[in-house]
UniProtKB/TrEMBL annotation:
It is found in: Secreted, Cell wall. Pfam families: Ecm33. Residues 347-367 have a biased composition (Low complexity). It comes from the Eukaryota. GO terms for cellular component: cell surface; fungal-type cell wall; plasma membrane. This is Receptor L-domain domain-containing protein. It comes from Penicilliopsis zonata CBS 506.65. GO terms for biological process: fungal-type cell wall organization. The keyword Glycoprotein applies. The keyword Zinc does not apply. Residues 344-367 are annotated as: Disordered. Residues 1-19 form the signal peptide.
């Protein structure tokens, strides 16, 4: 009896001394591997869960991983719990975990970056504290229905694509987005809410049913909407943006941007068949081209002072061109000028159809470079959801 009493601690200690360094790269292939690291409050290295790991895995005891936490291809991993983990210093990568259905990290608040892909059975996150800091969050092709548990206060790139069950996203704490925010290919009923976002860089949305940005005042880059199902879009406090694009939003009836004064780039409103009124009461300056084409009956830009690029406004509707003709005559519209009301086949500046009902859809156009230089959105509209970076690259080329 006393023999057992002594032998057990010795064995345990021997195993610890042999197996564990909290400072070296860690590979975990089983629950017993994970248990070996329970005494490491901080792991100063990368932690990899191997492809062969399976079942329910718990990383207990670990509070911080200064490196990355990653798991790729472990199709038999059904749940992952790290009850006391609060920080992952580098990347948190999960890829191809096709049976993962629970991710439980109650204390996790800070992550270098989140990069999750192909987690079709992961429907919710059990992140009680909530991740408030991440340099980037990229989540694609998961079963998530909400992003509750990701309560970002700061983020760089935020790209949420092809999550076909995702219906609501509310990033309540985010005030300043420092890189691209992109939504595409998620559930068509997805509602995206950024109640407190004041400033951002680029924001692009495809296939969403609502976007709320009540506090947004300034974007240094592009604001773009393609193939969304919302009826209205409103940015009540937005004064300045880069390229501004509404392309092929079939239910859109109302765009409300009452204090928008400056578009630092191209301004494109095309193929939004139900949009009958285009009205931007405070818009003064467009540094690129204006390209509006569709079935609208009113174009009201009473404050417009300068369009540095071209001006192409064509509609099946009976709007009036006279104000623009005067601006053109006064030299305020610098590039090529076209204004056509009651047009049978309104076209965009690159010649593709401006309406969805026409036989010409907005398929590829060779984007003949005009001296006006800024009607970029047609290029963007035809690339797959994920290709934003490539598109921006292409645009740069186009610009050169
Ligand atoms: C692990 O790294 C920390 C910080 O660099 C250091 O203080 C500690 O002594 C290291 N431990 C071992 C066992 O090397
Ligand atoms: C998952 O389990 C199945 C059945 O045991 C096995 O054939 C397969 O190789 C496992 N997958 C991985 C990635 O280990
Ligand atoms: C947003 O964050 C960036 C980078 O941290 C900073 O340069 C910028 O001043 C911030 N903008 C506002 C309005 O806080
Ligand atoms: C934002 O969009 C512009 C083009 O409108 C592009 O030049 C820039 O690289 C984009 N930035 C990011 C962070 O996506
Ligand atoms: C919009 O701007 C006004 C005036 O600056 C401000 O009072 C109001 O709080 C802003 N609204 C939101 C939702 O941020
Ligand atoms: C998403 O929007 C694009 C247009 O940008 C459209 O081509 C595509 O069919 C839409 N996807 C779904 C699932 O509706
Ligand atoms: C569009 O919506 C805004 C804000 O809700 C409203 O003030 C405006 O009258 C609407 N415009 C049209 C043409 O319905
Ligand atoms: C267009 O509207 C003007 C008045 O704004 C009117 O005189 C003209 O007849 C209308 N044309 C068509 C084709 O409806
Ligand atoms: C369709 O596109 C072709 C080539 O771009 C153009 O010549 C033709 O006028 C367009 N027709 C319509 C109905 O937009």
């Amino acid at each position: 009896m006393s023999a057992i009493k002594y032998i057990l601690p010795v064995l345990a200690a021997g195993r610890l001394a042999l197996a564990v360094s909290c400072n070296d790269t860690v590979t975990i292939s089983s629950q017993s591997d994970a248990d070996d690291y329970a005494s490491c409050t901080t792991i100063r290295a990368d932690v990899t869960l191997s492809e062969s790991i399976s079942g329910d895995i718990s990383l207990s005891g670990i509070e911080q991983i200064t490196g990355s936490l990653s798991c790729t291809g472990a199709s038999n991993l059904t749940s992952l719990t790290a009850a006391s983990l609060n920080t992952i210093g580098d990347k948190f990568t999960l890829n191809g975990l096709t049976t993962l259905s629970a991710l439980t990290m109650a204390d996790l608040t800070s992550v270098g970056s989140i990069d999750w892909e192909a987690l079709p059975n992961l429907q919710t996150l059990s992140f009680t504290a909530g991740v408030s800091t991440a340099d980037s969050v990229i989540i694609t092709n998961t079963g998530l229905t909400t992003l509750d548990g990701i309560s970002l206060e700061t983020v760089g790139e935020f790209s949420i694509t092809d999550n076909t069950a995702l219906t609501t996203v509310n990033v309540n704490e985010l005030k300043n987005a420092t890189s691209l925010i992109n939504f595409a290919g998620n559930d068509n009923s997805l509602e995206v809410d950024f109640p407190n976002l004041g400033t951002g860089t680029n924001m692009t949305f495809r296939n969403v049913s609502s976007v709320l940005v009540p506090s947004l005042t300034t974007l240094s880059g592009e604001l773009g909407f393609w193939g969304n199902t919302f009826k209205k879009f409103s940015a009540p406090n937005l004064t300045t943006t880069g390229d501004l694009v509404f392309d092929d939003n079939p239910d859109l009836t109302n765009i409300s941007m009452p204090v928008l004064t400056t578009v630092n780039g191209g301004f494109e409103i095309i193929v939004n068949d139900k949009l009958s009124v285009i009205s931007f009461p405070d818009l003064e300056t467009v540094t690129g081209a204006v390209d509006f084409s569709g079935e609208f009956d009113t174009v009201s830009l009473p404050s417009l002072k300068e369009v540095k690029g071209g001006f192409n406004v064509q509609s099946t509707g009976n709007f009036t061109c006279s104000a623009f003709k005067s601006l053109r005559a006064a030299g305020a519209i610098k590039g090529t000028y076209t204004c056509k009301a009651n047009a049978a086949d309104p076209t965009t500046s690159d010649g593709s159809s401006g309406t969805g009902s026409s036989s010409n859809t907005t398929s590829t156009s060779s984007a003949s470079a005009t001296s006006s230089g800024a009607a970029v959105a047609n290029l963007v509209a035809n690339v797959p959801a994920m290709g934003a970076a490539a598109v921006f690259g292409a645009l740069m080329q186009f610009a050169l």
